[in-house]
Amino acid sequence: MTKYALVGDVGGTNARLALCEIDNGALSQTRTFSTEDYDSLEAVIRTFLNEQSEQIKHACIAIACPITDDWVEMTNHDWAFSTSQMKASLGLEALEIINDFTAVAMAIPALSAQDVMQFGGKAVIKDKPIAVYGAGTGLGVSHLVHVDQRWVSLPGEGGHVDFAANSEEEDMIMDVLRAELGHVSAERILSGSGLVNLYRAIVKSDDRVPESLKPRDVSQRALDDSCTDCKRALALFCVILGRFGGNLALNLGTFGGVYIAGGIVPRFLEFFKASGFRAAFEDKGRFKSYVADIPVYLITHDNPGLLGAGGHLRQVLGRIL
Predict the structure, then answer these.
(1) For residues 169 and 236, what is the distance between their CA atoms, to the nearest angstrom?
(2) Using alpha carbons only, how large is the chain's radius of gyration in Å?
(3) 10 Å Cβ neighbour count for 265?
(4) Which regions of the chain does DSSP assign to beta strands (E)?
(5) Sign of the alpha-carbon dihedral angle for 159, 161, 167, 168
């Protein structure tokens, strides 16, 4: 067997590729390509492989779209391909295509204490179920369970479950958004556009006219204390993020930990630390004591998608994570 495999994490804007050492999962030769510069994913992979001196026969690519069969069509890009045809064209023995959030979940067993930041709870219980969710362009959700010395990712579309208001303020938000959107999912609140939805709903519930803001505008105005409405929106975002994480903990008894991924929270980390996130996570009535010991971790690793693609492939190749 060759020493290295190819791993990738592909989104609508960038494609990140790296080599993964099959025995220990270490990443090297990491490169980022702009998807606008290439006609296909295969072209990006060829460019990367042509730069390498290692023989590559195995690959795993994580992509931001549903993966259901051989034909893959990206959600936020026009790339589309047949997995089997690309495998043959690249001369690979194995090519795994997985969802990007499946990769984030599969990264968790490889994360060290330096790759995460803990928010409350106690220590994880080894091999117990894990939940991972991430606020970014959308709201990704996955679970990870340990079965017969293997980690099994349980992907789904948990970000689209109903938003559950649990305070008078959240009731007002719900009323405004329901009138606009009809169905109000968690993603309508816990995502980049969700932060804007929160700001707009706060202003409109007070019979005022909101400004046309982007997510970064809302968070920046909240952080520099120049807009009370934006600060309320960001504070409410943190609380609802906590409520949602607590729901995931209840769903599967995730005493292996709840992990937050995605690019939004790191933008306002100090604000998040001082927010009502953890109190909302534990605000489960009669089951407060049940979730109180469950730790929450913010993933700070630079490339969890690449790390998880490597973990998935290594497990397929018979390694124990």
Answers:
(1) 9
(2) 21
(3) 21
(4) 4-10, 14-21, 27-34, 58-63, 71-73, 80-82, 94-99, 116-119, 130-135, 139-147, 150-155, 258-261, 296-299
(5) positive
**Spatial contact of 42 and 90, defined as CB atoms under 8 Å apart:** yes
Q: Which pTM was predicted?
A: 0.92
Q: How many angstroms separate the CA atoms of 41 and 82, rounded?
A: 11
Per-residue pLDDT reduced to its tens digit, 219-233: 999 999 999 999 999
Rounded CA separation 23/197 (Å)? 46
Read off the tokens for 293: 């010991």
Q: Could you tell me which of 281, 290, 272, 207 has the C-alpha nearest to residue 244?
A: 281
Which residue do the tokens 């991430």 mark? 134
Taking the C-alpha atoms of residue 17 and residue 29, their distance in angstroms, rounded to an integer, is: 8
In the structure encoding, which two tokens stand for residue 161, read together?
A: 């479950």
Residues 36-53 have pLDDT tens digits of 999 999 999 999 999 999
The stretches of 182-227 forming alpha helices (DSSP H) are: 192-205, 215-223
The DSSP element (H or E) to which 49 belongs, if any, is helix 41-50
The encoded tokens of residue 319 equal 């390694």
Contact 130, 105 (CB under 8 A): yes
* Token pair recorded at residue 139: 């709201």
